[in-house]
Each structure stands twice: as structure tokens, then as C-alpha cells.
Amino acid sequence: MKYEKVKQILFCVLLLAAVGSLVFGLFDGGFADVLQKARMICFECIGIG
Questions:
Q1: Distance (Å, rounded) from C-alpha 29 to C-alpha 2?
Q2: Which of 1, 11, 36, 45 is least crowded, fewest Cβ atoms below 10 Å from its Cβ?
Q3: What is the pLDDT along the chain (49 residues), one digit of tens a residue?
Q4: Alpha-carbon distance 7 to 12, whole Å?
Q5: Structural domains counted in the chain
Q6: CA 8, CA 15: separation in Å to the nearest integer?
Q7: CA distance 21 to 28
């Protein structure tokens, strides 16, 4: 029973950290950077870029 509570708390902490990291990345412009790099890789594979 004791470990069940610890697991729930740990899960909540990790979930909050993950959501916080996603939000920080969105506001920091990380999404646009990753999308731009993905486009460039695809263009290089096709041979356009």
C-alpha cells in the first residue's frame, strides 16, 4: 500500500516535468527549429536541397 502511493506521486511529478518541458519548448521556439531540421533532412533525401 505504501509503495502504491509513492508510485502515484512519482508518476505525477514525472508527468508534470514532461508537460512543463513541452510547454517550455513550444514557447522557446523549439518546435519550429525541429520542424525546419526535419524539412531539410527530407529535402536532402529527395535530392531537392
A1: 41
A2: 1
A3: 788 999 999 999 999 999 999 899 888 888 888 888 888 887 777 777 5
A4: 9
A5: 1
A6: 10
A7: 10
Q: What is the total residue count of the chain?
A: 49
Residue span of the structural domain in which 11 resides: 2-46
Q: Which helix (H) or strand (E) holds 40?
A: helix 30-46
Take residue 43 and report the three cell numbers written for it.
529535402
- Measured CA to CA, the distance from residue 33 to residue 28 in angstroms comes to 10
Q: Which three cell numbers stand for residue 1?
A: 500500500
Cβ distance 15 to 21 under 8 Å? no
All three cell numbers of 23, joined, read 510547454
Question: pTM here?
Answer: 0.59
CA distance 10 to 29: 29
DSSP for residue 41: H
